[in-house]
Amino acid sequence: MSAKLSALFSDSYIDVSQYRDQHFKGNRVDQEKLLKQSCTLYVGNLSFYTTEEQVYELFSKSGDVKRIVIGLDKVKKTACGFCFVEYPFLHCFLSGAVRYYTRVDAENAMRFINGTRLDDRIIRTDWDAGFKEGRQYGRGKSGGQVSRRPLVPQSGSFDRSLVRILLLPQVRDEYRQDYDPARGGYGKLTQLQRTSDGPRTF
Amino acid sequence: MSRRRHSDENDGAQPHKRRRTSEPMEIEDRLESLICRVGEKSTSSLESNLEGLAGVLEADLPNYKTKILRILCSVARMLPEKLTVYTTLVGLLNARNYNFGGEFVEAMIRQLKETLKSNLYTEALYLVRFLCDLVNCHVIAAPSMVAMFENFVSVTQEEDVPQVRCDWYVYTVLSSLPWVGKELYEKKDVEMDRLLGQIEVYLKGRQKTHVPMLQVWTAEKPHPQEEYLDCLWAQVQKLKKDRWQERHILRPYIAFDSVLCEALQHNLPPFTPPAHSHDAIYPMPRVVFRMFDYTDAPEGPVMPGSHSVERYVIEENLNCIIKSHWRERKTCAAQLLSYPGKSKIPLNYHIVEVIFGQLFQLPSPPHIDVMYTTLLIELCKLQPGSLPQVLAQATEMMYMRLDTMNTTCIDRFINWFSHHLSNFQFRWSWDDWADCLTVDLDKPKPKFVREVLEKSMRLSYHQRIVDIVPPSFSVLIPAEPIFQYKYGDESSSSLLAYPVTITVGNAIKNRASNEEILTVLRDVPNPNQEEDDDEGEGFNPLKIEVFLQTLLHLAAKSFSHSFSALAKFHEVLKTLSDSDEGKLDVLRVVYDVWRNHPQMISVLVDKMIRTQIVDCSAVANWIFSSNMAHDFTRFYVWEILHSTIRKMNKHVQKIQRELEEAKEKLEKQHHKKRDSGDEEDMEKLSGDEEGQLEEQIERLQEKVESAQSEQKNLFLVIFQRFIMLLTEHLVRCETSGMEFNTSWYKNCIERLQQIFLMHHVTIQQYMGTLENLLFTAELDHHILTVYQQFCALQL
Predict the structure, then answer these.
(1) Candidate from A108, A169, A199 with C-beta closest to B557
(2) What is the pLDDT of residues B354-390, one digit of tens each?
(3) Residues of A in contact with B16 (CB under 8 A)
(4) Which of A33, A94, B111, B348 has the fewest CB atoms within 10 Å, i.e. is most exposed?
(5) Does the distance separating the beta carbons of B1 and A12 come in below 8 Å?
(6) Helices then strands (H, E): number in chain B?
(7) Which distant-in-sequence residues (6+ apart) come within 8 Å of B400 by Cβ?
(8) SS3 B766
């Protein structure tokens, strides 16, 4: 009886982005299909100190969260190309994945949590084809072990044992207080100073 | 046809690819686009755009009439905020092509019937309003519109129908009058007076039991929370007194008066409201949310009064904009801020009021809570010089009125405020709220601040909270979220079970299996056990404590660690929690160790329900147990309870869906058999399948029944406990002559209300049982009133 008026009622916040995971095992069509059904979101630009608890709290606002995985993401390209090994953590950033029980909840996260702040940083979410154990984001130890650490990417010449130690909350805490200018600094101070948008009264 | 592109980096919207289409499709899409976009910002005037568009459409009528009809019907239904733009367009088309006008009216009537049948009452209302404005555009003859109204109002004479049914028809008539009252009165004043008289009689005789349950504030000052029909009636009365002079609505058709009054009008066909049926779901009654008046906007245009029709129209239009664009926060914010006629009103105040009105709406907001937070942030970005101040003013006002605010609304206020602050470095003038330190900590204001700080901590960390509040507020700062291990320090070495905790701890660290753990736990001394009873398998609460305390202690580092722990030792936990007492004990231990980290308690309880270590009723009983009395008024406890109820509901729905799907599959099988020519072959193949399906359906049927029984039991437990607690309190106060309306009582009775409000759809199914078993006439009338108010919501 009536037209859908798609020209007007767009829902672009839940659209699939241009980014495609180059490690995805399958063709583009398959990947797109998975993305359109996915209940999992990739979350990027997290602060190095963002905790699982904070991610849970924020993302629970759009629905029940099934699982959260946080880990170090691949080394970012610097101006001179890939530079790592020496100070790997300098060129890392924290990213994660949030998986919901239902698609609707994930869509609401794309509409209302993507592009807002967590731990004072504007975070980005994007559809993820779903993390499986043993995917390129690194093998976590199989579930059930009390001493399991967050997943770590399997990339280049990281000293993974070093990275694992860094991810221990108590070491991250120490690191936080130990402000090292030579390392470009991830201290609280820098974080607080970094935020420049937003009005003054709030 | 490309969708809108969002250029700002900070946003999450994605650019959309351009579709490649064939010619006719392209023209149809172009038509849709032209029609949808008319009235938006343009270099030409609205009038010349409408004139131009009318010309284009007239030319396209021979080939695309159906499509154009469909598009126009859709915009009438879905873009009520642009009502008068489109009625003008239809008016112009009707002036050029009388037949088209007639066909459009017919299509609208068909659509109206459809929406009413499908319980789409809001859209039906927009359609009626559209038809009314067509009277202003000389498309529809006024007397036929009055006749339709007469049929609507006659619904109030029907017997044995829900009040909400009559309400809708009366509301539809009244809400159209700002647009068309003047014209109808000019043509048919006698009939209209009679109509209004009938409406007045109806309104006077209406039940209003439901009102207190829907009010955001219980106090009458400074702004009464009026019942929506009462408020609209007052607004219409005032409009009538002003001789139907309405100056706010944008009326493009006035510019075309000379053309339009030459047009021939159509008569609406006689319209009988569809009869009431049992599956009709009428809109629930509402209360009008007001928080501002003309004294609040210090400078600039004056805010229209609460009983002015302008106020109604503005609120309607802003609500419609949100309804259209809630999915895209940038668009929504932009549309709100470009409201036509904004220079004559304090727009920011209206917007903030409408948004909070939706957020605090009872039983529930029209959209997900987090949408409003994000929308307000977008608005602050677009109007950084003015909107944040209005928002701060609103926050201050709501803080001042916490004493009479409904608990459910306070919950939402807490969530909104803490989330909002987390986007603005938690900057707030806390010192302005120093008055909250001068009263008991269980009073609404300090309680609110404590809960806000707790939620804020969840989005940041403990030290941050310490840093952002003045030192005087330290008493309101939440505890550091640290694990409390009973067997952790030296003093605990004298505890009975201390040695076993060491053994268990080592076993876990050495990756013992579930069986091995259970063996170790046999050594836990049983405080309940008799000396000569060497069975050792009787219920032993100490086993649970020893194991779970130790396990959770080792896994305390993060949520992931704790979830892994629960998963790895699922077998042990299931064994230990096998009885009702076992489940309660598990929950008690979780609380004991994590009482300073409510968020952890929530996620652990959630996980344990999902892995069936505890069940929903156990959680309900635990919340109402004396152990939890200390935390009974804390927000997190109720979040856990409502989350538990929701899980139960989703579980039932899931199995019901599975049953439906299986039934559909079976029916398809039957159809296939019937339709296929080769009966023998089909029978061979599907005989087995059918048998399997039928078995599956039987199993699912049982599953559904058992799940529904569990669900009903859950509500019974919850309501029973409420009744016990409240009755105890009321009796105690009565016998000792104390005032019963304490902070605790207000919280408790409103939490009872909240159960009804948040789960009203599910609870409707069990009304009979509730009334027979629990909410009987013997109940204290304070408690019974809550139940009666709830029943009044759908009467």
Answers:
(1) A169
(2) 999 999 999 999 999 999 999 999 999 999 999 999 9
(3) 10, 12, 15
(4) A33
(5) no
(6) 32, 0
(7) none
(8) coil
